[in-house]
Amino acid sequence: MEKPVKEILQGLKGHSSRSKQSVVSENLGEIERLISEGVPVAVIWESLHVGGLELTFPSFQTSLHRARKKREGSQPQARPIPAPVSVPAPSVAGSSVVVTEDPFILKLREEREAFKESIKNLPERERRQKLSEFEVKQSERLRNHRAANKNR
């Protein structure tokens, strides 16, 4: 049974002895479900980070990759299907996922797809690095956008 983001965040409290990798591995199904619903990896990381997971974004990506590899070794599964038109975004205050039609988020998603297309011919390692840097910048833009619109 998959846990909502709120439960993942609550599970982090009081479990500082658990490895960060195990937190990602135990919640891989929920993380991949959010990704398949269109939530950017950077936004998922940000929600978990704000909720208490002390892990840098690149380390989160590595943990996610390792958890997928480990799962594939034990049980091959297809990758999640790309996101639908409506894009869920976490509400940091409530630590839950809400659906929004914010044009800014849709624009960020379009920019990400265009960026991925522009780097598709680079070597895999360089492509991953550039995509990681791009997602961190997008996460910062999203935080700034939310902060600016919070007062409206």
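^ that was protein a. below is b, sequence first then the tokens
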Amino acid sequence: MGRVLLPDGARIVTASSDGTAQIWDATTGQEIIRLRGHGMVLAAPFSPDGARIVIASSDRTAQIWDATTGEEIITLHGHEGMVRAASFSPDGARIVTACSDGTARIWDATTGEEIIQLRGRKGAEWRASFSPDGARIVTASTDGTARIWDAATGQEITRIILDASVTGLSVYGGTIALGDALGRIHVLEAEDFLSAADSAGD
């Protein structure tokens, strides 16, 4: 269903509807380890240092796994629907999850404790990602909006409104790329909203 390449290019992780995430050697193509998630695996990104993987699952949970041993470290409980996406903060200390229950949630990546909920949308959350400095979170929803949030307070900073469900999200530098249900890609310059330092000067 999806694949993620570790930044050093040495390993790839794939997420599958068969309930597994697999780690592969990017050079040889050989499977290194297989992680058996809780139900259908919808996303499985590496932590920034490559030591952990967070799996988003159809059973309303996300799990953190050791990328070397394949052991499950901790399970994140609290969502009331299918967890569609998960990603680590740039420093690896937090995780954000996006769920069909209409919430995105921020978690402590060490303890598994929920830190804050991001609410206020009518549709299911399909994607969520931290900004490069970890100060902001961008969410993408089936209600046709992408929203930028303060990652510390959970306050909504701004929203982007499209005329179709937002099904894809990528945040790179000061740019947000959104994919919609009509097959279009929207590229937006959002540096002023994504940087805590910039906002503090307003």
